[in-house]
Every structure is written in C-alpha cells, then in structure tokens.
Design brief:
The complex is a heterodimer of chains A (about 180) and B (about 425).
Chain A lengths: L2 E3 L7 E3 L34 E3 L9 E6 L5 H12 L3 E9 L18 E8 L23 H16 L15
Antiparallel strand pairs in A: 1-2, 3-4, 4-6, 5-6
Chain B lengths: L46 H17 L2 H8 L6 E4 L8 H9 L1 E5 L35 H21 L10 H20 L11 E4 L3 E11 L9 E10 L3 E5 L31 E2 L17 E8 L6 H6 L4 H25 L12 E8 L3 E9 L6 H4 L6 E5 L3 E2 L3 E3 L2 E3 L3 H12 L3
Parallel strand pairs in B: 1-5, 2-11, 8-9
Antiparallel strand pairs in B: 1-7, 3-6, 4-5, 6-8, 9-10, 10-11, 10-12, 13-14
Helix pairs in contact in B: 3-7, 4-5, 4-9
The chains are: A alpha+beta (about 180), B alpha+beta (about 425).
C-alpha cells in the first residue's frame, strides 16, 4: 500500500511499502526548489568527453578531448575539475569540419559529422601521455598446431630461396 | 689498378743524401694560378648554386654599412611567429628560453649582492657599520639614500593618497593608478642619481618607447604546398612597448665573461612553437632599440615594465593560477631584454653570421605597483639560426629575482612598511656604470 503525503499542494512524496520487484517503483519526487532550500537532487550533465590520442605530437602537459559541440571552454574546465578532480590550467577549443567530399554508390555526397576538439593544459605541473592500448604481442603458435607447421614450412622455403652466404651478396648471374 | 712506382732494380738501402743543400731551407715558390678558382655556378638550378647564392648574399651583407645591413636582413617578408613578452601562455619562460638560447640564473649577479656585510671597504661610508646601516650602496652616501627613500614615499603618497582619482574603467586600473606612479618614480630617481652616475646626465629617458627585434632560430619541414618537404627556418619577431627605458652613450660592463656562459644550461623544447600557443603573421620585419640608428645613446641601461590588469596577481589568484605569476614575469623580462640587447647589437653591426665580440648588457625592472622584480640580461651570442648555431657554445644569460614587495600599504597619509632592500636595489640598478 502506498501512503501519500500532501504538502500544501506542493509536489508529493510517495513511500512505496511493497516488496521490491513486485511492482515498478514510482518515480522519486522532490520538493520544489527555491533559493535557499537544501539541494537534494543530483543533476548530471548530458555531455560526454572522449579522450583521444593526439594526431600531432603535443607537449606533455596537454591532453586532447573530443567534446560535444555545445560545450564551451569554461564548461570543459568545470566538468573536469568538479567531476574528475583534474586541475585544469587552460583550455583551447576548435571545431573540426567533417568532410563532405565522399560520395556513395548513388553518387550522393556523404557528410562525415563535425566535432569539437579541446586541448586541455593541466595545472600544477602534471603531465599525461596517451597509453599504448594495443601493444605488440609476441605471437607464439601453440605446439603441434597447424599454424606452427605452416610457419616452419614458410621459414624453410625462405631459407631455400636465399643464396649461399659465402658468396657475400653477389647474385648468381656472375658464375657458372 | 694501383699504380706501381717505378723503382730502380737495385734499390739502395741507404738512399744517397740530398746533394743540393742550398735549396733545403727555401720555401716552395709561389706560383700564380693560371686559371680562376673553380666555384659552383650562380644561376644554375642546383643545390650548390643555391648555396653559392646564399654565400654571396652573406658576403654582401657583411661588406655593407650598418643601415644597409639592417635593411638587407629585414627586407624579405615571410610568415613569422609573433612573440609577445607579456603572454597568457602557460610555462612561457621555458619556451622563450629555447627560442632565445638563454639560461636562467635565479638571483642577481655579485655586483648587486643584497647582503651588505659581504661587501668590503667602500670610500664614502667607512664609518658606518654593516649592522647599523642596512642601506649601503658603494659610491652613494647615506644622506642620498635617505633622500631617495623620501622621494619614493612622496611619489607613492602622491598617486595613492593625495591625488583624487575617479573609479577606473574596466581593466584600466594599472594604467591609471600605477602608470603615473612609475613614471614619476623613474624620472625622480634618474634626476636624483644623476650626480652619482656620470652617464645619466647624458642619457635619454624614453617614455612609452617601442622595441622591436627579428631573428631566426631552428627549422621545420614544410608539410604542404608547392615547397613541401623542404627545410624552412622558423622566424620570430618581438614587438615590445615597455613603460619607460633609459638609453646611455657607453656600454655597461659585462657581468661574467663569454666563456663562463658555455657551462649554462638552456632547456630544449622539441615541439613546434605553435603548440605553445604562438601564432604566425606576416608583416614588416623591424629592428629598433627605441631610437633610430644615428642616435648617440645607442646602448641600453634599464627598462621599466608595467604588469597589465590582465596578468595582475590578484586576478591570477582568483583563477587559481598563482604559480604562473612568476613565470609571466620571467618570460616578460627575458623577451623584452633579449629584444633590446639584440637590437643594440644589430645597431653595432653584429648579426647572425657576424657574432658579437663583446657581451651586451641591460637591466629591467618589472612592477605592478607593489611588487618589484629585477632582471639582468647578458647577450653573448646573436647567431641563433641553424647554420651558425651548430658549433656555437655561447649562451645568453638572464639573472632574475622573485617579486619583492616595495611597501605594505598606504594608511592615513603615510606609507607603511617601506622595504629598504628594494629601494637599495633600485638605486644600485640606476647607479650601475662602466
């Protein structure tokens, strides 16, 4: 049974007393906010930043982000400082035009979306290098498998193609 | 096939001695060359021809008088990086040190030692003990120092207490409040210390002068265009407007020898300057000390700079960038003094391919009204482009202090907490003479 509490025609607060999972939970309703009231709601921005690897080499204190078009430099600074506790020194932004040159099979121009790039310089002498997400792995094929036999075969073939090392790189054109 | 020298069948073990002793000690006869020297062509479409054209141009510049030299060096306009001494960029001093090949040394040279006990016997005030009189300057007696102190208090009170000023417009505060104070201070100090420094009566005090300098340093590969793949030197230009400066007729003595700069360390920055951020423009290449070439006061003494509202330490503190205040001051001192000393050297005929034979020295004071920073610069080399910098061990040197407070506040018609060290440093700076 839900008990409702009316507060002078303000928003209602409902308390669900039924067990969880039996019925969908009604939305939590907060009291109307006026200046000076306690801040009960958590408002999360609908913006998401993407950390990208810089195309051109950047100084060590500079981090590169792709940000939504509607964000400004101040927004980026506040976002990083308040949500992620990152000390931000300076932010510079630019808008990258996505090309409209390519054409599809119907000869129509296909637009690649535009995006905004932010270069954030960190404060307090901090540095950041973009990590290597795809490191080179030593691929050793499993013992007795097809790949190992194939690799061995290819190596033997290559060896057979090479000339006698005692000739010192001279081709077989000179000789018998 | 190796050529085999023809030796006689019976080669003697001890060859016969050189018979004609008379000709043993004479030099080889100098023969006039019958053909002119073989040099690469001047007009061919080849790299050696281009090299020869560059050589001929360099030789032409070296052989011409100073005005022609300057006009030949600054003739061709190309895209260049405009370096602003007062910049918002972070860590600008490291970048500027790399651009100008300058090493930063914290503190001032020994001549301006703040500790009076270290200095040995001085002519005019032997009687004063170091502990009793903290303000002792060699060559200036204590009464003069007291006069200077009263002058400074008078100037501060005039601008901040007696004068009734209306509320300043947005970002015009420094210009309205501190600009006149600094002007009065500089002219008052110059005239009072004129009897202790024989150069000052013959000097020229410029108010709001212009200082420009143009140089090349480093190179890059052109990424796009019809000149893609080729090397291009990076060009820089400084256009500075200090608050005031003093130019003198003789050169100030060097702080350290040229060789002492070989050991100094200059930070290397491998990134392109536009990442700083620094922007490129194309316009007239100017080299100017503050006066035109025929002016007799062609050497620099001291520059005074004002910190604008945008970089005031209160505003930086509000934006949580207090650590950048000192960085800004150092970058300002570095760029301004490098431009001034470089222009002075150019006025004497030294340029990229003819390096300076003696160091050029100048001083600067940067202030925002309350805090004073003192900088000394010694220009040891002006050869900064790629070809001339390859084997150049010389480096330019910048000495600088942290910002020192001149006074705490002005209350009830009196200056509270006047710092004598700062007054003494100001006097020492202005009394500096060869």
């Amino acid at each position: 049974m839900t008990t409702l509490k009316r507060l002078q025609n303000n928003y209602l607060i409902s308390y669900v007393s039924k067990p969880v999972g039996a019925m969908p939970v009604t939305r939590l309703l907060y009291p109307l906010f006026q200046l000076g009231n306690p801040q009960l709601r958590i408002l999360r921005p609908n913006w998401f930043l993407t950390l990208v690897r810089p195309g051109k080499e950047q100084p060590p204190d500079t981090v590169q982000f792709r940000i939504p078009m509607e964000m400004t430099k101040c927004d980026v600074k506040n976002y990083l400082e308040k949500i992620y506790n990152v000390p931000v020194g300076a932010v510079r932004t630019r808008i990258q035009f996505g090309s409209n040159k390519k054409r599809n099979h119907l000869n129509q121009k296909v637009k690649q979306p535009d995006y905004k790039v932010a270069y954030v310089q960190l404060a307090q002498g901090q540095t950041f290098t973009f990590p290597d997400i795809f490191p080179e792995k030593e691929r050793m094929p499993a013992e007795g498998s097809m790949e190992e036999m194939q690799e061995k075969f290819m190596e033997d073939e290559k060896q057979r193609q090479k000339l006698d090392p005692r000739r010192g790189g001279v081709t077989e054109w000179f000789g018998l | 096939m190796a050529a085999r020298t023809r030796l006689p069948l019976l080669f003697p073990k001890n060859p016969p001695p050189f018979r004609n002793q008379k000709l043993a000690h004479t030099e080889a006869a100098v023969k006039e060359p019958t053909y002119p020297p073989i040099v690469p062509s001047l007009t061919a479409k080849s790299k050696s021809a281009r090299g020869r054209q560059v050589e001929e141009h360099v030789r032409k510049i070296c052989a011409s008088p100073v005005e022609e030299k300057l006009s030949l060096i600054t003739r061709i306009q190309r895209k260049k990086f405009v370096v602003y001494p007062q910049t918002f960029a972070r860590n600008a001093d490291r970048w500027y040190q790399h651009f100008t090949k300058t090493a930063y040394i914290p503190g001032l040279p020994e001549r301006f030692a703040l500790d009076p006990e270290k200095r040995t016997g001085v002519e005019e005030e032997e009687s004063s003990l170091p502990a009793a009189a903290p303000t002792t300057v060699p060559g200036v007696d204590i009464d003069a120092i007291a006069d200077i102190r009263s002058l400074v208090t008078r100037v501060i009170l005039q601008e901040h207490w007696h004068m009734k000023k209306r509320k300043p417009f947005l970002y015009r505060e420094q210009e309205q409040m501190v600009g006149p104070f600094l002007r009065n201070l500089v002219s008052g100090l110059t005239y009072s210390l004129a009897k202790y420094n024989p150069l000052l009566p013959l000097s020229s005090l410029d108010i709001d002068p212009q200082v420009n300098f143009y140089w090349r340093r480093g190179q890059r590969i052109i990424p796009k265009g019809h000149r893609r793949g080729r090397q291009e030197p990076t060009r820089f230009q400084i256009d500075d407007k200090p608050h005031s400066q003093i130019r003198i007729t003789q050169q100030l003595p060097q702080f350290t020898s040229l060789e002492a700069s070989y050991a100094a360390e200059v930070p290397e920055v491998t990134f392109a300057p536009n990442l700083m951020p620094l922007f490129r423009r194309q316009y007239d290449n100017n080299i100017f000390t503050g006066a035109k070439l025929p002016d007799p006061a062609c050497y620099g003494h001291t520059q005074f700079h004002l910190v604008p509202d945008r970089y005031h330490r209160d505003r930086m503190a509000r934006q949580q960038q207090s650590d950048q205040v000192e960085v800004f001051l150092r970058a300002n001192g570095l760029a301004s003094l490098f431009a001034w000393t470089g222009a002075q050297a150019m006025y004497q005929g030294f340029w990229n391919h003819e390096d300076v034979t003696r160091p050029f020295v100048s001083q600067a004071v940067i202030t925002d009204g309350q805090f004073f920073s003192f900088f000394c610069y010694q220009l040891n080399t002006v050869a900064l482009s790629v070809e001339t910098d390859a084997n150049n061990p010389r480096k330019n040197l910048l000495w600088g202090t942290e910002s020192l407070r001149l006074y705490d506040s002005v209350q009830d018609g009196a200056v509270v907490g006047l710092n004598d060290d700062v007054v003494k440093l100001l006097v020492q700076f202005l009394v500096n003479q060869p």
